[in-house]
Amino acid sequence: MLKHIISPCAQLVNESVAGCVEAIGSFNPPRHIPCVCHDLSKVSRRVLKSGLMDFVITQDMYQQGYQPLMLINDILNGKMHETGRSSISARIICDENAGEGDIY
């Protein structure tokens, strides 16, 4: 199944998501082209529920800004991290689990 999802696939960003998936749909490709975007917004939720979008990968903007600063602070204060990386969670949203409270 993973091979089927990866090739070909459209990764979409920002508020042009609706226009992009509508353009792909109007192209009428010979087989379904999976569409994935970042950030669950009102626009991406609408497109997701319509069936034109397959998945949305959420992003936690607060943690993306906070964690790098905390990592730098720890390193500067002698608390070394093995990899110099910090994990920030993300969720994969599809039309079945796109609740109203998930907009970021």
Overview of the structural elements:
The protein has helices at 2-6, 17-27, 42-50, 61-76, and strands spanning 10-12, 35-38, 55-57, 92-93. The protein is elongated and about 55 Å long. It has a four-stranded mixed β-sheet with strand order 1-2-3-4, with helices on one face. It has four helices and four strands. Helix 2 (17-27) links the parallel strand 1 and strand 2 (35-38). With 104 residues, the chain is an alpha/beta fold.
Radius of gyration over C-alpha positions, nearest whole angstrom: 17 Å
Helix content: 25-40%
Sequence of strands across the biggest β-sheet: 1-2-3-4
Question: Strand count, sense and closure of the main sheet?
Answer: 4 strands, mixed
Overall body shape: elongated
**How confident is the prediction overall: mean pLDDT?**
75
Series of secondary-structure elements, N-terminal to C-terminal: HEHEHEHE
List key phrases describing it:
single chain, 104 residues, alpha/beta, 4 strands
Please give the structural blueprint.
Layout: H1 2-6, E1 10-12, H2 17-27, E2 35-38, H3 42-50, E3 55-57, H4 61-76, E4 92-93
Parallel strand pairs: 1-2, 2-3
Antiparallel strand pairs: 3-4
Q: Could you give a short description of this structure?
A:
This protein is α/β, with parallel strands linked by helices and 104 residues long. The chain has helices spanning 2-6, 17-27, 42-50, 61-76; strands spanning 10-12, 35-38, 55-57, 92-93.
